[in-house]
Automatic annotation (TrEMBL):
Assigned protein family: Belongs to the type-I restriction system S methylase family.
Record-linked SUPFAM superfamilies: DNA methylase specificity domain
Native organism: Deinococcus arcticus
Coiled coil: 163-190
Key word Transport present: no
GO molecular function: DNA binding
Keyword Iron-sulfur: no
Name listed for the protein in its UniProt record: Type I restriction modification DNA specificity domain-containing protein
Keywords: Coiled coil, DNA-binding, Restriction system
Name of one Pfam family that matches: Methylase_S
Length: 403
């Protein structure tokens, strides 16, 4: 089945957000205020848990008010987050968007909003949009013109709507798995808190017992990436306490790795994301091989008296996450300094009790691993269905059977 390919800019347009000084923020819900979405609100779904507001008169054009069915797109962020988009549901309040995000809005009746959402957030399109990013010192900026020149397959409207409905079903199943994982992670955090309440602990700062450093992007020192060699980690490689790899992984050669000796990663190191997405962590194991990392990842290396796996589990607790949130600084993107990590207060029982706590937590971790495997299967299914649907190679009948 062959569908027309239509330039995205003939069906949609980008609306840039408002800019304001930090001291212009006002209380959410106050008279004359309007909610202002930021990059932190652009998650898989619109995150409405942490809202700010600005005076309504900062919004100069009516089109800068967010509408149901818009896509909020991260347009100035760390490289791996540029182009990330979420759907705007029906809102019970008036909202605009900040200067680091944009709204992608339909201006043609030929395009279904949910079809656009699934197409724009598909892996292939996200990779392409991200590759259009124009890098500055700290952030990457979305190239709006190149994004609007992308071609979107445009079947008849009723087929768009059916494709969107089935992909919505896949999304619902994926979100169910994600909610299960989040509940299990909260349960594990509470189990950790209870376990340390039953033993004698000594409170220290991480800087007392750990060597802490971070990575560097090789291109800032005149080195390029290579097709093989040491794996070069980014935040997206840290998932559920482990190092995961993907088709877009980066590598550096031996010379570059030696030049970045400060951030060569060793077994039993604990990695922590400190820019953009703060608080993801992973334990490095022997089989992970030779690795280095960029400046968005901190390396925490226990020197003595700390089991690395125990430290990794603690970093995932609500207490540790709260300390990180309280120490983060927001400029162009949120970041956590090495000094702040060094000052984090860490509950340290003796090594025998650290191991005992890890054994107790493993039962919950096994359930998380099971749900994660199911979620990965659902994501793979979604990617396959998206690819086939947008290429016209999958009939609606087969599309439904695949579920």
């Amino acid at each position: 089945m062959s569908w027309d390919q239509v330039r995205l800019g003939d069906l949609t347009h980008f609306i840039r957000g408002v800019t304001f000084k930090p001291d212009a923020k006002v209380e959410v819900g106050s008279e004359g205020s309007v909610v202002c979405f930021r990059t932190s609100n652009v998650q898989t779904k619109l995150d409405q848990s942490d809202l700010i507001a600005v005076p309504r008169d900062i919004v100069k054009r009516d089109e800068q008010f967010v509408r149901h069915g818009d896509l909020l797109v991260s347009s100035a962020n760390s490289w791996n987050l540029v182009g990330k988009a979420c759907w705007v549901p029906e809102l019970s309040y008036e909202a605009t968007l900040g200067g680091f995000i944009s709204a992608l809005r339909i201006n043609s009746p030929r395009l279904d909003p949910r079809y656009l959402f699934h197409w724009f957030t598909s892996s292939k399109v996200q990779d392409t949009v991200r590759s259009f990013g124009r890098q500055t010192t700290n952030i990457s900026n979305l190239d709006f013109a190149r994004a609007l020149n992308l071609e979107i397959p445009l079947p008849p409207l009723h087929i768009q709507q059916r494709i969107a409905a089935v992909l919505d079903e896949v999304d619902a199943l994926r979100q169910k798995r994600e909610r299960s994982i989040e509940k299990l992670r909260l349960l594990k955090s509470e189990a950790f808190k209870f376990a340390i309440s039953t033993v004698e602990v000594r409170e220290i700062t991480l800087g007392e017992m750990c060597y802490i450093t971070k990575g560097t992007t090789p291109t800032t020192l005149g080195f390029d990436f290579s097709s093989a060699g040491a794996k070069f980690l980014r935040v997206q490689n840290l998932v559920d306490g482990r190092i995961v790899h993907a088709s877009d992984d980066l590598f550096i050669n031996r010379e570059t790795n030696s030049a970045l000796a400060r951030s060569i990663i060793l077994p039993n190191d604990v990695l922590l994301s400190i820019a953009g997405t703060i608080g993801r962590s992973a334990l490095v194991i022997e089989s992970d091989g030779e690795m280095n990392c960029n400046q968005a990842i901190a390396i925490i290396r226990p020197l003595h008296s700390i089991n690395s796996a125990y430290l990794r589990e603690w970093l995932d607790t609500s207490e540790a996450q709260a300390q990180m949130r309280g120490s983060s600084v927001t400029a162009t993107i949120a970041n956590l300094s090495l000094g702040s990590i060094s000052k984090m207060r860490f509950p340290m029982p003796d090594l025998a009790h650290q191991v005992k706590i890890l054994i107790e937590l493993q039962v919950i971790q096994d359930q998380i691993d099971y749900q994660r495997a199911s979620l990965n299967h659902m994501r793979d299914l979604g990617d396959t269905l998206q690819s086939q649907a947008f290429s016209g190679s999958l009939t609606l009948r087969n599309f439904e059977v695949a579920l």
